[in-house]
Amino acid sequence: MKSRPRATPSDHGPRSSFGRETQSTPDVAALSRSFGRTPRLPRAAVFLGTGLACAVGLVGSLTRWQDAGAAYLLAGSVLYLVGSIVVTMLFNVPRNNALAALAPASAEGAQLWASYLAEWTAWNHVRTIASFAAAAVLTVALRLRA
User: Fold this and answer.
1) Contact between residue 112 and residue 102 where contact means Cβ atoms under 8 Å apart
2) pLDDT class for 38, splitting at 50, 70, 90?
3) Dihedral, CA of residue 70, residue 71, residue 72 and residue 75, to nearest 10
4) CA angle 133, 63, 69 (to 5 degrees)
């Protein structure tokens, strides 16, 4: 059995700002196709349903500020609404739409892909951290109300 030489980071292309290996050639076509694969209604229901619940929680926390956990309910609701909903609408969706509108093999597609991967990933990290933080803070709010 022959052993293969070990790959080095330079064998796989550039690294993103997060230290992960990134593709040196754009895979715009594959990513554009993936935008349409996920059923929109279930995805939107979960995403916006949670946002609606947080909006209700935000109003509820302000109207019942004296209740135990109200400050945590307010903080968790704001974390989710701003960190997930607002970030998605302002930063991720426009990048997805711009990428989907380009021809995958075009020079514009390659140019957009160069910035897309790092920028989209950075904002996705913000969404992920904000969502986990919101879940933790909302859990504290529920425990204090119990």
Assistant:
1) yes
2) low
3) 120
4) 40
